[in-house]
Design goal:
This protein is α+β, with helices and mostly antiparallel strands. The protein has one domain. It is built from two helices and two strands. The chain has a two-stranded antiparallel sheet with strand order 1-2. Strand 1 and strand 2 form a beta hairpin. It is globular, with a radius of gyration of 14 Å. The protein starts with 6 loop residues before the first helix and ends with a strand.
């Protein structure tokens, strides 16, 4: 990983599900390789596990183009 952290440590630190992260990494890698594009990198949105955000529901929408919108929610 670009962060230099182990996937499990990274996910724990960021409040992410490791299985979901792995799945989306595979999806993006396959898409990049089939289209001849560059590998997809992460955008650091800061810690989603900070005390001020821990109790709030979060929703993140990413427009991937071609009518595809990826929505991530945490309740």
């Amino acid at each position: 990983m670009v962060s230099g952290q182990d996937r499990l440590v990274f996910c724990q630190d960021k409040g992410l599900n490791p299985a979901c992260l792995r799945r989306w990494q595979e999806v993006f890698r396959k898409e990049a390789s089939s289209s001849g594009g560059q590998p997809v990198a992460f955008v650091d949105l800061g810690s989603l596990n900070s005390p001020s955000l821990r109790t709030r529901a979060l929703e993140l929408k990413l427009d991937l183009g071609g009518g595809v919108v990826l929505t991530l929610t945490r309740h």
